[in-house]
TrEMBL record:
Pfam families listed in its UniProt record: DUF72
Regions that span the bilayer: none
Protein name: DUF72 domain-containing protein
InterPro entries hit by this protein: DUF72, UPF0759_sf
Length: 279
């Protein structure tokens, strides 16, 4: 089974016809929450999002940046345990509604393959308990020839869902596309685009590079290649969640729709007015 969605929903208002999640959910059955990365969300936000979407709509929740080593500046939590507890507590409305597809832990480019970071992954998995968790690396060392198989075996043994990436190949701060599932039930595939020059922002004196980092539109040939990859990947995992994150130029939604058509995936959610009609 394939489930397609986008990273966030407000980026794509011009394409899907509105900024509301309820309007987005007419077009796609899953979404990746970006706001959860920047701050632990209050429960009321998740309650609202669950209420605004159809019963079969799912959420890929991005882990809070303090839990993945991205946070710069003061940490609002006293310690790691308190941070994880707050994050887990915020997810209760999504979990109780059976809408959580997975929590995505995307680690930064400086999260290298070493003993300390392996221990950090074990701590994270322990804190997350039985919740489905996906793991995405941004440092090449995890998939170098001598470590690739060991990394995948570790993920499989520890119960991590593999977040497979299509991203620019820009040195150590990027990872290759590794087409291997590590969980029998779920696999995540994320499309970041292939904008090599905008990926790392090296040499840029300001933060403007972040605005074009995901500026890329996949062409038909590239998507056809991914059609074959996804069909092959489907043989080793029950469900594949496909997220398009190439949103700087509003290319994510059209690319997702095109790949859906190639795979014969059809989805039409409930119109916003119908979702709350009998509540």
């Amino acid at each position: 089974m394939f489930r397609f969605g986008l990273s966030g929903w407000k980026h794509h208002a011009a394409v899907i016809g509105g900024e509301k999640l309820s309007e987005y959910s007419v077009h796609f059955p899953i979404v990746e929450s970006e706001s959860s990365f920047y701050a632990v969300q209050p429960k009321r936000n998740y309650e609202k999002w669950v209420r605004e979407t159809p019963p079969d709509f799912g959420f890929v929740i991005k882990a809070y940046q303090g839990m993945t080593g991205h946070l710069r500046g003061n940490n609002p939590f006293d310690n790691a345990a308190a941070m994880f507890d707050a994050f887990l507590g915020s997810l209760v409305p999504v979990i109780e509604a059976d809408r959580l597809k997975m929590v995505l832990f995307q680690y930064p480019p400086w999260f290298e393959c070493n003993r300390r970071n392996v221990d950090a992954l074990r701590y994270t998995k322990e804190k997350m308990g039985e919740l489905p968790v996906a793991l995405e690396f941004r440092h090449q060392s995890w998939f170098l020839p001598g470590m690739r198989d060991k990394t995948l075996q570790f993920m499989e043994r520890e119960g991590w869902i593999h977040s497979i990436c299509d991203e620019p190949q820009a040195g150590s701060g990027s990872v290759p596309t590794v087409l291997q599932a590590t969980h029998p039930d779920l696999t995540l595939v994320r499309f970041h685009g292939r904008n090599v020059s905008g990926w790392s922002g090296q040499g840029k004196e300001d933060e403007s590079w972040r605005d074009v980092r995901y500026l890329y539109r996949y062409n038909t040939e590239e998507l056809l290649e991914w059609k074959e990859r996804l069909l092959e990947l489907q043989k080793s995992t029950k469900e594949i969640c496909v997220i398009f994150n190439n949103n700087s130029g509003k290319d994510a939604a059209p690319n997702a729709k095109e790949l859906m058509r190639m795979l014969g995936v059809e989805y039409r959610g409930e119109a916003p007015g119908q979702i709350n009609l009998f509540e």
